[in-house]
Automatic annotation (TrEMBL):
It comes from Heliomicrobium undosum. It comes from the Bacteria. This is Acyl-CoA dehydrogenase. The keyword Membrane does not apply. PROSITE patterns: ACYL_COA_DH_1, ACYL_COA_DH_2. Residues 6-118 form the Acyl-CoA dehydrogenase/oxidase N-terminal domain. Residues 230-379 form the Acyl-CoA dehydrogenase/oxidase C-terminal domain. Residues 122-217 form the Acyl-CoA oxidase/dehydrogenase middle domain. GO terms for molecular function: acyl-CoA dehydrogenase activity; flavin adenine dinucleotide binding. Belongs to the acyl-CoA dehydrogenase family. Its cofactor is FAD. Keywords: FAD, Flavoprotein, Oxidoreductase.
């Protein structure tokens, strides 16, 4: 396994890093404080071709490899985890689902506007009573001639209030249970009968909107079925195998952003007549945190490398997601500690990193679900 970046990846990384450090970092604190979707940054990312990384060039995308995509999420998360998850759901879940499973007409209709950021994508799997147990979903799609008639609700839908399309999972076979009988549909925002709630208030990720969707006899044209009827659960799971690598990269970036800041801080903060970084207790802590981050990075890049190579990566994605996001929580909490009382205030970014880190252990499958996925791979 060789993670040496080729020239194209190096150039891409340099461009993304510059963009993240200047444009994204400049509004990160404000976006968090004002609970504001970073419209201007997302629009610029569309112009730069960064939103269409999973979309082939012939459909208006930039056709990047998966490792480049993961590097981008990591760079964004170092400065603004909200921006990272907006892009992860838009590009990694919504765009990728259509690029991979879409019929020609669907690709032609949706991928160009998605790549340009003219429309934002969301991924609607979770329901009030179907979170970890995704296969128990009950959003009903009943046959209505040329349409599917949708009734039910989705919750915790990232990007929802900004989204133009929702890659949605519904039960098209009323007699089915569990993973059978679920179909994936592209639901357009202006679908009559679809209502989107106000964003829910969260502990962190204040720039990322999270809403409920309510379907009340919402008619979705049959031409919007994504993939095969009744095979939606596998689409969902395959998308999450990749999505979890992006969330792992988000955790990695959050941890790196917090530790970078804390290291700068401990070198200049003086107590007892010298920088606190001169204390061995602090040196050993940052050494341990940096080691954990490096271990997480290797797991994340390995999973991305396997996916880029077209090799099985479900177990490795779950390992990377669990380890990197647990690392993010630990590192950000320790970084708040390193900054002491200042770390607990909104004046310094580490408390934002800590609030943002928490949900990475929860969404795209809790870390307990990742343990289940890993164990099933080991035991089957
Ligand atoms: N790839 C392809 N097929 C898969 C698969 C995968 N990774 N995982 C399962 N399947 C297939 C199985 O092979 C099986 O098919 P067959 O019957 O034909 O063999 C079928 O799907 C059912 O599989 P399981 O019996 O393993 O399913 P399960 O009900 O036990 O559930 C689970 C498995 C892993 C627990 C799953 O429910 C899960 O991942 N839960 C977590 C949900 C989740 O991650 N939600 C994220 C929401 S999106 C989000 O969070 C985005 C955001 O906002 C940031």
């Amino acid at each position: 396994m060789d993670f040496t970046l080729n020239e194209e990846q190096e150039l891409f990384l340099e461009m993304v890093r510059k963009f993240a450090r200047h444009e994204v970092a400049a509004v990160a604190e404000q976006v968090d404080r004002e609970h504001r979707f970073p419209q201007e940054t997302i629009a610029k990312m569309g112009e730069l071709g960064l939103l269409g990384l999973s979309i082939p060039e012939e459909y208006g995308g930039s056709g990047g490899d998966y490792l480049s995509y993961v590097l981008m999420i990591e760079e964004l998360a170092k400065v603004c985890a909200s921006t990272a998850v907006i892009v992860a759901v838009h590009t990694g879940l919504a765009c990728t689902s259509i690029a991979r499973f879409g019929a020609e007409a669907q690709r032609e209709k949706f991928l160009g506007p998605l790549a340009a950021g003219e429309i934002i994508g969301a991924y609607a799997l979770t329901e009030p009573n179907a979170g970890s147990d995704a296969a128990s979903l009950t959003l009903t799609a009943s046959d209505a001639g040329e349409h599917w008639r949708l009734n039910g609700s989705k919750v915790f839908i990232t990007n929802a209030s900004e989204a133009g399309i929702f890659v949605t999972f519904a039960r098209t076979d009323p007699a089915s249970r569990g993973a059978e009988g679920i179909t994936c549909l592209i639901v357009e925002r202006d679908t009559p009968g679809l209502t989107i709630s106000k964003p829910v208030e969260k502990m962190g990720l204040h720039g990322s909107v999270t809403c409920e969707l309510h379907f009340d006899n919402a008619l979705v044209p049959k031409e919007n079925v994504l993939g095969e009827i009744g095979h939606g659960f596998k689409v969902a799971m395959q998308m999450l195998d990749g999505g979890r690598i992006a969330i792992a990269a988000q955790g990695l970036g959050i941890a790196e952003g917090a530790l970078d800041y804390a290291i700068r801080y401990i070198r200049q903060r003086e107590q007892f007549g010298r920088p606190i970084a001169a204390n061995q207790g602090i040196q050993w802590l940052v050494a341990d945190l940096a080691t954990e981050i490096d271990a997480a990075r290797l797991l994340v890049y390995r999973a991305a490398w396997l996916k880029t190579a077209g090799r099985p990566h479900g177990k490795e994605a779950a390992m990377a997601k669990k380890f990197a996001t647990d690392t993010a929580m630990q590192v950000t909490s320790d970084c708040v500690q390193l900054l002491g009382g200042y770390g607990y205030t909104r004046e310094y970014p580490v408390e934002r990193h800590m609030r943002d880190a928490k949900v990475t252990q929860i969404y795209e499958g809790t870390n307990q679900i990742q343990q289940m996925v890993i164990a099933r791979h080991l035991l089957r």
